[in-house]
């Protein structure tokens, strides 16, 4: 590996924010002397992140026209596990032909090379380079740098996953059955006094359950705890509420007793 590339990868390793990856794409583009270099990921839940050296105009047009649906690079690389020269992809459809013409006019280049990456939990990413070159020159370039480009691709993906993991909230700790009961009734609109009476708890014990649930859910207040419990599936509004109402006295019975 060349000394300059080692320095670029060392800089990448020190990145602590996703924005720093943008600077790394620019440095590697200049290192390899190509028109463009980019990294794009898609997680299993559809979250996307991208950085690269393409023009803002081309990125905007790509997103606005939803070109991800017809881009042969995205479609073709998703089905592959090894580096792909764009010439190997299917550009025969009319939409693909028009898309390629538009991309070249936007300065993307007539040649391209992408490395598909499969990460944890269904994550898919692409590390791509593009340039204007003859078929022969491009084949020489990709063959010469193939191993280092694979290393760059996986280094980018590892760093992006590492940064993203640090940005995510701590995993939610499992709630006890009583904590779920308490939050369910509060989510249904019961007051604390009504919940305590319904579950036959002292208000002190009820407060302990609420505080414990808040801690486990990393919630700033009770409403935040309820929202997180719903979003994490601890409370399924409707089904859980109906089950709870079937097991314990309903709101009307409590109000009548008062």
Give the SSE order as H and E letters: HHEEHHEHEEHHHHHHH
Compute the separation of the termini in Å: 79 Å
- Strand segment count: 5
Structural class: alpha+beta
Q: Could you give the order of strands across the largest sheet?
A: 2-1-5-4-3
> Which fold name fills CATH's third level, the topology of the largest domain?
Beta-Lactamase
Entry summary:
Helices cover 56% and strands 12% of the residues.
How are the SSEs placed, and which strands pair?
Elements: H1 3-13, H2 19-32, E1 36-42, E2 48-52, H3 56-64, H4 72-78, E3 84-85, H5 94-105, E4 111-118, E5 124-131, H6 135-167, H7 177-187, H8 192-198, H9 203-216, H10 222-231, H11 239-247, H12 251-257
Q: Can you walk me through this structure?
A:
This protein is α+β, with helices and mostly antiparallel strands. It folds into 2 domains: 3-167, Transcription factor LuxR-like, autoinducer-binding domain (Beta-Lactamase, 2-Layer Sandwich); 177-257, Winged helix-like DNA-binding domain superfamily/Winged helix DNA-binding domain (Arc Repressor Mutant, subunit A, Orthogonal Bundle), CATH 1.10.10. Helix content is 56%, strand content 12%. It has 12 helices and 5 strands. The chain has a 5-stranded antiparallel beta sheet with strand order 2-1-5-4-3, sandwiched between helices. A hairpin with a 5-residue loop joins strand 4 (111-118) and strand 5 (124-131). Helix 1 runs antiparallel to helix 2 and helix 7 (177-187) crosses helix 10. The protein is elongated and about 80 Å long. The model is unreliable at 238-258 (pLDDT under 50). Pfam families: Autoind_bind, GerE. One of its GO terms (molecular function) is DNA binding. InterPro entries: Sig_transdc_resp-reg_C-effctor, TF_LuxR_autoind-bd_dom, TF_LuxR_autoind-bd_dom_sf, Tscrpt_reg_LuxR_C, WH-like_DNA-bd_sf. Keywords: DNA-binding, Transcription, Transcription regulation. Residues 168-233 form the HTH luxR-type domain.
């Amino acid at each position: 590996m060349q000394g300059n590339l080692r320095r670029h990868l060392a800089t990448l390793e020190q990145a602590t924010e996703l924005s720093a990856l943008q600077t790394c794409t620019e440095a590697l583009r200049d290192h390899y002397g190509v028109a463009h270099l980019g990294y794009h990921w898609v997680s299993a839940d559809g979250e996307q992140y991208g950085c690269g050296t393409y023009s803002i105009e081309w990125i905007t047009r790509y997103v606005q026209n939803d070109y991800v649906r017809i881009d042969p690079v995205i479609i073709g690389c998703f089905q592959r596990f090894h580096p792909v020269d764009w010439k190997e992809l299917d550009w025969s459809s009319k939409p693909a032909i028009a898309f390629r013409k538009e991309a070249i006019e936007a300065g993307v280049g007539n040649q391209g090379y992408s490395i598909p990456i499969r990460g944890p939990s269904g994550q898919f990413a692409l590390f791509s380079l593009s340039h204007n070159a003859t078929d022969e020159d491009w084949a020489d370039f990709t063959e010469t740098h193939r191993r280092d480009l694979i290393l760059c691709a996986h280094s980018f993906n590892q760093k992006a996953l590492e940064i993203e993991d640090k940005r995510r909230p701590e995993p939610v700790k499992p709630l006890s059955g009583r904590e779920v009961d308490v939050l369910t009734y509060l989510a249904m609109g019961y007051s604390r006094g009504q919940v305590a009476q319904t579950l036959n708890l002292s208000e002190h014990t009820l407060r302990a359950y609420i505080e414990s649930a808040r801690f486990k859910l990393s919630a700033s207040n009770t409403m935040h705890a309820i929202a997180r419990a719903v979003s994490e599936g601890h409370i399924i509004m409707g089904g859980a509420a109906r089950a709870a109402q079937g097991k314990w006295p309903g709101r009307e019975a409590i109000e009548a007793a008062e």
